[in-house]
TrEMBL record:
The lineage of its organism: Bacteria, Candidatus Glassiibacteriota. It comes from Candidatus Glassbacteria bacterium GWA2_58_10. This is Fibronectin type-III domain-containing protein. Residues 509-614 form the Fibronectin type-III domain.
């Protein structure tokens, strides 16, 4: 029995009499047939907003295994290996500082805080991002460190005793970047990011740092705050560094879990397909027996329906004393080679492996079979090795000894799979054992004994239910989408790619603020204590502007803010008062603003404005 828990969150939404939420149109579908190792095609998405992505399916419809099929959209979503992730995250970065900040922002902005899955392999960035997408402090720190090291930036995990954080090394010094809290702390020069040791020596650097609230988007795009900012900036932070004075240490115990070489690559056999949904269509997730349902996750299925009349699946199944219809034309499709008698009692076995890059959270095995007699030598049984810790077969079914003829069974695997605990399931084996009595060869092929005295399998379909992180999936966006496909298969392949999405119309995002009101753009000799003001944004639908996101930076590209104090939401007015002591004299600063309407639609960033202090 699954226990469901109720919890309270804050919903931020409002109703505007003059405007309605975006209208969702009919579901659109695009199917592309691929026969080359490299293939590109275009999907144009209409509407006025980014679409609701629904499903992507890759299916092997040919006769050879499809090895490492990969899909990118507009050059993005290449998250198959650690090296792939780092290359995309740090694209355009020239220095170790730039790489570390890009990785920090990836972990901070593309995951959300939630009770972590106890799957040991989820500490690895590849599995964490593609499978789960949520974490607590230890996972956030280990993701950051693993990605930094893969990018050539030295980094380390630090345990304070009550919180796990991370540091990166650049310019000969360590710098604390806490991607779980979404914060770092600037030294008294108002420019250099402090280390843990700096903060132990100067705790006031922590006290002046604004701690942002946490939020995520529901599938219906309403914003939910589950850790609102209601405390003084230093509340809840000071005790972390007080604890570090007594219990702080550099931590290496995560390394064996973090640096295991995981990949999201897969080989699809003929008749196998990988289906992924952006929403939790199945409602299944890892740790389901003991954890609350994550607020945002997706599901998928790996479905294998082999056709033994066309393919022998050499190298992708194991068999003993078995023949296939593709080899001898005999039905049922899978049947014993040597029939059993008192002198030859070897049972015929078929082992079908299921290997998934995503965590398996359920599934089923559908079988159509035939049993040619009722003796002890006539047998059709099905079992599975569902335990990732070793070879432990679980009997799924055994067709009645007293029965014969055709039969069908659908065995649900959900309650038999190990879905909770530190060892998650990413693969399992389905095993069929078949035997046919030698004396049954004389049985005529007449209904109901349509195949005579032989026993075997007519049809097999194995489905593994998956948990996926929707943020990692190759999503379509408004306008032109160039989809790039590549694989490493040998010979000719036949692959079918299907996208399903729903376009959104009837709403438009707001425009960005157009002017720097005060100080004017390019102003010089500005007081270091000032209030930055911008012009109000306009919404083409007349929707209310409920929030502005403000960023202040040393950099003309605003790649990261001066401090986390200066990357924040402004929910009242069109200005931000800069606290005293944060701006240095004779220094140029750059800033920009983004508007958000009452339905959560965000504008592009404004152009970057600047001013120079006196």
């Amino acid at each position: 029995m699954i226990l469901r828990h109720e919890f309270i969150v804050f919903l931020l939404f409002s109703f505007h009499a003059g405007s309605l939420p975006a209208n969702n149109g009919d579901v659109r579908e695009h199917t592309e047939l691929v026969r080359n190792a490299s293939h590109s095609f275009v999907i144009d998405v209409g509407g006025t907003l980014d679409p609701e992505n629904i499903e992507i399916t890759i299916e092997n419809t040919g006769g050879v295994p499809v090895v490492k099929p990969r899909i990118k959209v507009n050059g993005k979503y290449n998250f198959y290996t650690l090296e792939d992730m780092v290359a995309e995250i740090t694209a355009g970065c020239a220095t170790d500082e730039e790489k570390a900040m890009a990785i920090y922002q990836h972990v901070d902005q593309n995951y959300y805080w939630w009770s972590f899955p106890r799957d040991n392999s989820s500490y690895n960035p590849v599995r964490r991002f593609n499978v789960y997408g949520y974490h607590i402090c230890a996972q956030a720190a280990t993701q950051f460190v693993a990605l930094c090291r893969a990018a050539g930036v030295d980094a380390r995990v630090y345990e304070t005793g009550v919180h796990t954080i991370s540091e990166a090394l650049w310019d000969g010094a360590w710098h604390l970047l806490d991607s779980d809290f979404g914060a770092w702390y600037v030294k008294s020069d108002n420019r250099t990011i402090a280390s843990i040791q700096d903060l132990l020596a100067q705790p006031e650097l922590v006290a002046r740092t604004y701690k942002p609230y946490r939020w995520y988007r529901r599938d219906d795009d309403r914003k939910i705050i589950y850790r609102p900012d209601g405390e003084p900036p230093d509340a809840g932070l000071k005790h972390i560094f007080d604890s570090a004075r007594e219990k702080g240490r550099i931590e290496h115990s995560y390394d064996d879990r973090v640096f295991t070489d995981y990949s999201m690559d897969i080989t699809l056999r003929p008749g196998e397909k990988l289906v992924r949904w952006w929403k939790p269509v199945l409602g299944k997730y890892f740790d389901q027996r003991e954890k609350l349902e994550p607020p945002r996750y997706g599901n998928g299925q790996l479905v294998f329906e082999p056709d033994f009349s066309r393919h022998d699946y050499s190298g992708s199944i194991q068999r003993r004393n078995l023949k296939l219809a593709v080899e001898d034309g005999v039905l049922p499709q899978v049947h014993p080679d040597l029939w059993q008698d008192s002198a030859h009692g070897e049972v015929s076995d078929l082992v079908i492996p299921v290997r998934s890059p995503y965590v398996i959270v359920g599934g089923n095995v559908e079988t159509a079979f035939y049993k040619g007699g009722t003796s002890s030598l006539d047998r059709v049984t099905c079992s599975a090795d569902l335990d990732p810790t070793g070879d432990k077969r679980t009997r799924l079914w055994n067709y009645y000894e007293w029965a014969c003829g055709q039969g069908e069974v659908q065995q649900v695997l959900d309650d038999k799979l190990i879905r909770d605990g530190r060892q998650a399931t990413y693969d399992f084996d389905v095993i069929f054992s078949i035997s046919a009595n030698q004396s049954g060869k004389s049985i005529p092929k007449a209904y109901p004994m349509i195949y005579g005295g032989i026993s075997g399998l007519e049809k097999v379909k194995i489905t593994a239910d998956l948990q996926v992180n929707p943020s990692s999936l190759p999503a379509l966006s408004l306008g032109r989408n160039v989809i790039s496909y590549a694989d490493q298969s040998g010979g000719d392949r036949d692959v079918k790619i299907t996208y399903r999405w729903r376009e959104k119309s009837g709403q438009h995002p707001p425009g960005p603020p157009r002017q720097a009101v005060s100080p004017a753009d390019g102003s010089v000799r500005v007081n270091a204590t000032l209030e930055i003001q911008w012009s109000a944004a306009n919404d083409p639908d007349g929707d209310d502007i409920v929030c502005y996101r403000f960023q202040l930076s040393f950099r003309p590209d605003c790649a990261w803010p001066l401090a986390t104090n200066f990357d924040r939401d402004i929910r009242e007015g069109t200005s931000l008062k800069v606290p005293e002591g944060w701006l240095n004299p004779r220094t140029t600063y750059y800033w920009r603003v983004q508007a958000e309407d009452e339905y959560g639609n965000r504008s592009p960033w404004s152009r970057v404005f600047s001013f120079t202090t006196r």
